[in-house]
Please model this.
Amino acid sequence: MLFMVMHKLTEDIEEGRPSTKIVAEMGKFIGDAIAQGKFLNGAGLKRSAERVRLRWNAGKCELTHGPKGENELLAGFMHLKVKSMDEAIAWAKRIAEAEGGGDVELDVGPVVERWDLGLEPKPTGEVPLQVLVLRKADAASEGGVRPSAAAASRMQALKSEMEKAGVLLVAEGLKPSETGARVRTLAGKPTWTDGPFAESKEMISGFSIIKVDSLAEAKDWTERYADILGDIEVDVRELEA
Model:
């Protein structure tokens, strides 16, 4: 089974990069998970001031720079490699069009690179920008309603175009939150809430894709992940097949 483990934005993460202790401990934890065949993918997002929210209402798109937490319950995401945030926003608009328009909400945010963490020097010259396009959940996605055949066909055509352009790195959809769980750690003590769960005011700060045998195993992995990060909220969601 594949799960997406998403940690939320905290004041410490918002104010600057994580401590060297957290970076080192998380690096070892993820390295061990890779060796065990459990960790498949992951990325962290830069602070909210560098993100853009696109919200469609009656066919009109409203852009908000530096959005604050609202409706932080995801239905899926795409990991893109582009030249600029303007290009990323242009692709996000096309993603919404492929889904059929309507009241769609997407967050676009740049990914934390290794040089942002002080792990290596930033490459010289033109460096591609990695971003995450986060698709917010709505009543339909939470109810398990699948896209229409026409919308699915449009999205597949767009993904093929993005892959040919070298833009699309990863695209995943999430099952409704009723198949997942949420943990909040405080002073090292985890408190779990099984899905379905309500929206959260905390924005997504990063994610890991893990392959384990059950939700129980995913929760165990997540507790150790959260313990490294400190007092934080983390969602565990099963990926669509």
In short: DSSP finds six helices and twelve strands in the chain. The chain has one domain: 2-238. Residues 159 and 168 are 7 Å apart (CA to CA). The two ends are 9 Å apart (CA to CA).
